[in-house]
Amino acid sequence: EDVLDLHGHTSAESITLVENFLTMSVANGFQKVRIVHGRGLHSEGGQGVLKRVVLQELRKSKYVRAYGNSPPELGGSGATWVVLQRG
To answer: What is the pTM of this model?
Structure first.
């Protein structure tokens, strides 16, 4: 398992980081990874901008088989686990 933490990054930076992270994770043979995006508590209106960006990228990625919220002890709704495609 590997982890990408997007705290402090913009939406545009996060798109590139997520794309590169997924590509490298598959190349390194990882089956499950986690992306930390935060809950958006400090965002305008309390809406998680980075979470929305991450979910958008995961939906369109050819490397992703499944994804969902991390367990509470690993970030809960502030992080997303990703199961990667094999091969």
So the answer is: 0.88
Q: What is the 3-state secondary structure (H, E, C) of 21-83?
A: HHHHHHHCCCCEEEEECCCCCCCHHHCCHHHHHHHHHHHHCCCEEEEEECCHHHCHHHEEEEE
pLDDT tens across 10-43, in order? 999 999 999 999 999 999 999 999 999 988 656 5
| CA angle 23–24–30, rounded 5-degree value | 100
| CA pair distance 40, 31, nearest whole angstrom | 27
